[in-house]
Design a protein that fits this description.
Elements lengths: L56 H4 L6 H10 L2
Length: 78
């Protein structure tokens, strides 16, 4: 079990076959409110233990973090 704060990014990579993931949300689904970044964006630098075998077209199609975001975070000192 895990808890993801509202507005935070999350990802799930299973290491065994036939795994199902279920999750609850705090509001009704609103596709126009969805945001995301590409799972393998080099700016994030996640070292995945294996490459995904299956990834949804939606998740594969998210863009990298924008240069404007990187500048904003540097200004905040994060």
């Amino acid at each position: 079990m895990g808890y993801i704060l509202r507005g935070s990014a999350d990802a799930i990579l299973t290491l065994t076959d036939d795994t199902e993931a279920f999750y609850m949300v705090s509001a009704f689904y609103a596709p126009e409110e969805e945001r995301g970044v590409r799972w393998n964006d080099p700016a994030i630098g996640i070292e995945w233990p294996i490459a995904p075998v299956e990834i949804s077209p939606k998740d594969a199609g998210w863009p990298d973090l924008s240069p404007e975001f990187h500048q904003l975070e540097r200004m905040r000192g994060l």
